[in-house]
Structures are given as C-alpha cells and as structure tokens.
Specification:
It is a single chain. The chain has a five-stranded mixed sheet. β1 and β2 form a beta hairpin. The chain folds into two domains: 179 residues, Ribonuclease H-like superfamily/Ribonuclease H (Nucleotidyltransferase, domain 5), CATH 3.30.420.10; 54 residues, no CATH class. The mean pLDDT is 94. It is an alpha/beta fold. It is built from eleven helices and five strands.
C-alpha cells in the first residue's frame, strides 16, 4: 500500500553547496519536526527567511549523528513510500547529502505547472499558491512543519484536479503525479528579465541570443536549474 510522506527542509541557503538545518514531515498518523546543526554556519540571509539562528542549533547534533537519521532514512526509502515536496529536486538534493535517497517522489511545483498549460498562474511558489487557491490553514510560512501542512492541502487540490479532468481514480492520479515529477518541467512563458511575460517561442523568434546567454548562465549556476536548462535546451534544439 502506498504511503505518502509530505516533507520540507529548511537549509543554510538555496544552492548545491548548502545543508540541512531543519526537516519536517507528515504521514497519515504522525508529524515530525526537528532542528540540526549544519556543517557550515547559517548565514543571516537564510535566517532572515526561516528565522533559525546559529544559537538555536548550537547544542543540536548534526543530522547524520542524530538518532533521527536512520528512522527517517528507513521511512523515506521504503519501497511503498512516495515522498511529496514543493520544488522536490532541491529538497531531495539536500537529504541525499544526508544519505537518504527515496525511490519515488512527487513535486507539487512541477505538477502545478503541468496543470496550468496556458500559464495563467504568475508564480508557483508554495505560499503564493496557498493564497491564490484560498487554502485555509493555520501554518507559519517558511517553517518546515508549517510548509508541510500547506503542502498537504495543495497536494489534495492538485490530485483532485487530475481525478476530475482525466476521470481517473486516486491511485491513477497519484501515479500521474509521480510521472510528471520524474522529468523537468517545460516552461512556456518568461517570468523574469527583459522579456518577462512573453512566450518563450516569441523570444526565440526575436532574441535567440538572449536564450543562448540565459542557458549558459543556468548551466553555470550553483542552484537547481534543471527545469530551465531542460526548457532552454528544448527550445534551442540543443
């Protein structure tokens, strides 16, 4: 039987060089959240987002040294588990550094994009979708457990949309979400820069050089840019 695990991490930053500070998860019958001392200092830029300070983790073990790591590893890596996260590639990269590699995952960010083929939604970050979709829940933003509670509600909305539009049962809808999540998203519209709001196909026709430059920037970035790299390579036929 499939076991859904909704999870989120708070970290020292948003690049491939960053590390876990907090992990939270929720299943049908339990919720968990704990802080850990990362191997590098938490910079003020990160604390300004999640409000976790170096003083708060000074007496905490690292995640790998904690008694929680083997328990979470067993739960997340179970063959019947599907972990669910928003912008899952980043969270999966962070926990992979801690020795945890789930077998199946759902990225609600990728699913939300896929279910918006006309790019009517301006942004897809979790808190924006929370208020756009009127998800009413008491949850503190940028706290790992608070984000997990919002994530669970967003997942239900997306799953129900698939079930309704494709006339499938819950099992098939979840399988569809896993499939969508397994490959990068294909962006349709620019959401930043001098061509903000334009269809990428339009930009390709009028300013191919900009897309070439952007691809080079994304390839050199230390952030998780799989979706943009995939999109740009697709449109540039690379």
């Amino acid at each position: 039987m499939v076991k859904l695990i909704f999870f989120d991490t708070e970290t020292t930053g948003n690049t491939e060089k960053d590390f876990l500070v907090q992990i939270a998860y929720k299943t049908d019958n339990e919720s968990f959240a704990e802080l850990y001392q990362p191997p590098i200092k938490i910079p003020p830029e990160a604390s300004a987002v999640h409000h976790i300070t170096n003083k708060m983790v000074a007496d905490k073990p690292t995640f790998k040294e904690s008694t929680d790591q083997p328990i979470i590893k067993k739960l997340f890596e179970d063959k019947n588990s599907i972990v669910v996260a928003h912008n899952a590639p980043f969270d999966l990269m962070i926990i992979a550094k801690e020795g945890i590699v789930p077998k199946k995952f759902i990225c609600t960010l990728r699913v939300a994009r896929e279910l918006d083929p006309e790019s009517k939604i301006e942004r897809y970050n979790l808190q924006y979708l929370r208020y756009l979709l009127d998800i009413e829940i008491e949850a503190m933003a940028h706290d790992a457990l608070g984000d997990v509670l919002v994530l669970e509600k967003l997942f239900e909305r997306l799953k129900n949309k698939i079930m309704s539009e494709e006339n499938v049962n819950e099992e098939r809808a979840i399988a569809k979400m896993v499939e969508i999540s397994s490959h990068p998203s294909l962006f349709r519209t620019m959401n930043f820069g001098k061509h903000n709001g334009k269809k990428i196909e339009e930009v390709l026709a009028c300013d191919r050089g900009y897309l070439e430059w952007l691809l080079a920037q994304k390839l050199e970035s230390d952030q998780i840019e799989d979706d943009w790299i995939y999109t740009l390579q697709h449109h540039l036929k690379k």
